[in-house]
C-alpha cells in the first residue's frame, strides 16, 4: 500500500481533498454539520413491519438521528433461512437451506421491506439509510431511502459508482478491511469526478495478522479518523463499531473512542432482542444499551464543542 503523496493530492485525488469546498450532505431532513454527531441506528436486517417500527420508535426516544436497516444482504455464506420471504423467521428453513432467491422475487420482497422502513422513518422523523448491492436497484430504492450505503465488499464496484453518481441521494462509502486510505480516497474521487459531491466515508475496521483474539473480525483503525479529516476535511467520517468488533461488549467502548478521536458519526446495530436477530446476533445493542451509548456519546461530544 502506498502512502498518500503530494503528487496524489495534485493529480489523483484533487477533488476529494479540497479544503475550502462547501460540501452539502443532506439525507432527508438531516444535514451533516461539523459540530454535529450523527447516530445512525437500527437492525442489521429488517425482519418485519412491527420490528422496524418498534426499533424506530425506541432509537428516536434514545436520541438517534437516522434509521438504518439491511434489506439486500451480502451474506458471507448462502445458507440458512431465506431472508425476505414472507415466512422468513418462522423457524422452518427451506429444505436446501439456500438463501438464494430469483432476482425478480428478491426485488419484490426487498421493496416490501423498504416500504416498512420508510414508513417507520417517516412516522418518527428519521431519515433512512440502507445498503445497496445492485446497480439496477437504484431507481427502486431511491423511492424509500434517504442515503445509500456502499458496503465494504462493493467499495470498487464501478457499476454502483456509475449508478449512484447519477442519483440525487447522498452516499456513505465503507472502507474495505484490506484497503488503504489512499484507495478509499480514490473511490471518493471517482464519485467527485462524476459530479457526485454529497459523499461520506465509513471506517469499519481493518484486518491485522495479530490481535487479542485470533477469531477477531477486524480492528477499528482509530488513526484513520484524524487522517481522513486531514486529507479530506470536508467529507464526514463515520465509524461502524458493530461490524468491526462483532462483539456486543466491545461496541460501546469502541464507539466512545471513535467520537473522542473526531468521528462525525456512528453506524450502530440495534435490535429489541439481539440474540434472536436474523443476522449478526453477536453485536447488536438492545434499547437500554443504545440509550446509554447515545448519552455517553453526547457527553464526549460536548467536551469537544459538538452535540448529537
Number of domains: 1
Tell me the number of strands.
Answer: 10
- The topology string of helices and strands comes to HEEEHEHEHEHEHEHEHHEH
Tally of contiguous helical segments: 10
Structural class: alpha/beta
CATH-defined topology: TIM Barrel
The helical percent reads: 25-40%
Lateral strand order in the biggest sheet: 3-4-5-6-7-8-9-10
User: What's the mean pLDDT score?
Assistant: 91
CATH superfamily: Aldolase class I
Q: Span from first to last CA?
A: 35 Å
How does this structure look, described?
The protein has 308 residues and is α/β, with parallel strands linked by helices. It has one domain: TIM Barrel (Alpha-Beta Barrel), CATH 3.20.20. Helix content is 36%, strand content 12%. It contains ten helices and ten strands. It has helices at 6-12, 49-62, 103-124, 138-142, 158-165, 181-193, 224-231, 241-245, 248-260, 287-303, and strands at residues 26-27, 30-31, 38-42, 66-68, 128-131, 147-150, 171-174, 199-203, 237-239, 265-269. The strands form two sheets. Strands 3-4-5-6-7-8-9-10 form an eight-stranded parallel β-barrel, surrounded by five helices. The chain has a two-stranded antiparallel ribbon with strand order 1-2. α2 (49-62) runs parallel beside α3 (103-124) and α9 (248-260) packs parallel to α10 (287-303). It is globular. The two termini are 35 Å apart. Mean pLDDT is 91; it is low at 85-96.
Amino acid at each position: 500500500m502506498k502512502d498518500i503523496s503530494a503528487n496524489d493530492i495534485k493529480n489523483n485525488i484533487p477533488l476529494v481533498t479540497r479544503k475550502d469546498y462547501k460540501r452539502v450532505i443532506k439525507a432527508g431532513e438531516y444535514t451533516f454539520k461539523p459540530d454535529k454527531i450523527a447516530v445512525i441506528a437500527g437492525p442489521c436486517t429488517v425482519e418485519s413491519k412491527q420490528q422496524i417500527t418498534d426499533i424506530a420508535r425506541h432509537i428516536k426516544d434514545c436520541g438517534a438521528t437516522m434509521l438504518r436497516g439491511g434489506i439486500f444482504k451480502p451474506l458471507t455464506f448462502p445458507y440458512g433461512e431465506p431472508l425476505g420471504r414472507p415466512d422468513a423467521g418462522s423457524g422452518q428453513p427451506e429444505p436446501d437451506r439456500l438463501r438464494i432467491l430469483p432476482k425478480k422475487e428478491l426485488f419484490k420482497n426487498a421493496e416490501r421491506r423498504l416500504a416498512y422502513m420508510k414508513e417507520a422513518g417517516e412516522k418518527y422523523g428519521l431519515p433512512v439509510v440502507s445498503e445497496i448491492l445492485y446497480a439496477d436497484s437504484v431507481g427502486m430504492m431511491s423511492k424509500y431511502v434517504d442515503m445509500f450505503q456502499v458496503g465494504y465488499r462493493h467499495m470498487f464496484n464501478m457499476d454502483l459508482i456509475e449508478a449512484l453518481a447519477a442519483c440525487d441521494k447522498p452516499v456513505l462509502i465503507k472502507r474495505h478491511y484490506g484497503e488503504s486510505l489512499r484507495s478509499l480516497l480514490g473511490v471518493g474521487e471517482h464519485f467527485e469526478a462524476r459530479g457526485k459531491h454529497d459523499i461520506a466515508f465509513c471506517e469499519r475496521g481493518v484486518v491485522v495478522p495479530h490481535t487479542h483474539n485470533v477469531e477477531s473480525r477486524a480492528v477499528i483503525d482509530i488513526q484513520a479518523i484524524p487522517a481522513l479529516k486531514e486529507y479530506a476535511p470536508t467529507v464526514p467520517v463515520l465509524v461502524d463499531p458493530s461490524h468491526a468488533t462483532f462483539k456486543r461488549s466491545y461496541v460501546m467502548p469502541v464507539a466512545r473512542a471513535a467520537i473522542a478521536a473526531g468521528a462525525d458519526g456512528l453506524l450502530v446495530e440495534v435490535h429489541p432482542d439481539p440474540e434472536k436477530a436474523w443476522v449478526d446476533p453477536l453485536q447488536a445493542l438492545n434499547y437500554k444499551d443504545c440509550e446509554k451509548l447515545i448519552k455517553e456519546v453526547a457527553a464526549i461530544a460536548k467536551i469537544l464543542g459538538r452535540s448529537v
